[in-house]
Amino acid sequence: MAGQLSGPPRWEQDVFAGDVTGSGEWTVYGLPVRRVHQYGARLSVLGDCLATETELQRGLTAARQGQWRELACWPGSYWSVVDEPERTTVIGDLSGSRPVYLAAQGRAWSTRATPLAEETGAGMDTDALAARLVTPTVPEVVRGRTPYTGIRRVEPGRLVHLTAQGAHTVPYEQDLLRPATNADDTLAEALLLGVRRRVAAVDGQVSGDFSGGMDSTSITLLAARTTNTPMVGVLLIDAVSSNGDDVLHARRAASEEPLIRLYEVTNRHWLFDDLEQAPATDLPFSDACRWATRFGYQRVAQCEGSSLHLTGSAGDLLLSSHPRHLAELARRGEWREMLRQATAWARMRHLPVASTIAAVARASRLSRRAALAQLAKTLGTPAPPAQRSDPRHGLAWAAQGGAAAWLTAEAREQLVRSVRAAAEETPAVPPGATTLMGELHEFGAYEAELRQQVASTGITVHAPFLDNTVVRACMAWPWYRRQNLDGPKRQLVMALQGLVPDVILGRGSKSAYTGSAYAGLRRNADTVRGLVEDSWLAKAGVIDPNVARTDTARLLAGAPGPFAALETLCSTELWIRQHQGAAHA
């Protein structure tokens, strides 16, 4: 299938290189840049790099000796570019929140895909869009593809050598999941260093999310307590959903820290509100339809003149256990612990315990190749609506999204072929590591678009959990032991004990916000129907509009259904309309 996207906007913050010659001729638009030179070589760090000048010089020395990993060991979120007489080397981060994109044949690169597509005349890759809709966390299927034909994202953890002969990618991080005995101390050091240097680098007010949850609240408290800096803490109060527990914890934590000035913002914006005003992002952003809610409370930072707003983004991903870890426990022979946790997980979701344990046991016997083969089979035989929302689907190593049921026969057949081809090329190895890295890279892509969307509203957001140093520390813990499904994040508790009050570190609960999401859907029913009825993806042959309309109607009536898939579909349609502009209106 093929499509055409016309008129993408030019970005204020991107790096673009034309034909690659190795001469170091590339252009920066809007991003902060720091440079050091040595013996004809130049290191440029772009974005929010918190290294000292001495550390930059040492990094360039190490890079000239081929020790490229040293350029990805500083606090902050940034790209590194080393220009030598006949070669340019570009390094993003470990999560992909600082992505690097290559055009066909590696003749051009950029930190944004859209300007690269504009310069090269790339059209739409609808097969890639289908894969991103349905299998965004399956790296073997997504394979770094973007919605633009011939524009690819370099896999996070790999660098790009660019010469007159083209581009060559190699890993600079060999084993991100290598266990470490002092992982909790390393995490504390990495978080402290990242937070302290961020606060020291700004001249003005500092703010942070103060939800009452462990991640964002801990980051904001660390900033206040370890730098003795007055902070604005922003708490969103949702009148529809049951976030009362969050509010109580946030208020109590703020009362114990005089440096925190708590602002409580009642939610007056809803999911799907004001989509015509939503800032455009480089690539489709799954949370684009929530922009009004996010800006509604983060604008407090803007009004307070904040130069830095801290969030706990990625904390859940890096510090929590996914139900798939139950299968890993079984694979390793830890049956007693698996049975205890699987029983608790099933009972919390009102599922039969025996069938849940059986599903865990089946998953424990799958290799990565077998998991992909199973995914291909599942994609080829769509489940009826009543079975799509079964929580046990979350135990699958290679999961499909709810939008799978909306694919046309042609799009489904193509995606199944892609998954089968990936299965044939994948070794029969344990699936856990690949699954975990796929989720990290998908979240990095999410964060890249989130940062851009929020920045367009005048707010500078930082997520210290996505610093390379913090990601390494989190990944150094065995992922299947991170957390009991019904308990606090043990790794964060051990790392921040004594630095963050127990009222936050001792939390074993998490508030739900589904009520607010459904209220937003009902409030903006006409907008959502319009996006589904006039779907570009339907016209391009990717989704069946009749199936999408049926599921949308069920959701609007309050019935269970693929809510996340609907939100992703609407976000993708919004992105297409923004980039096509008047041509689509």
UniProtKB/TrEMBL annotation:
InterPro entries: Asn_synthase, Rossmann-like_a/b/a_fold. It comes from the Bacteria. SUPFAM superfamilies: Adenine nucleotide alpha hydrolases-like (SSF52402). Residues 187-576 form the Asparagine synthetase domain. NCBIfam families: macrolact_Ik_Al. This is Albusnodin/ikarugamycin family macrolactam cyclase.
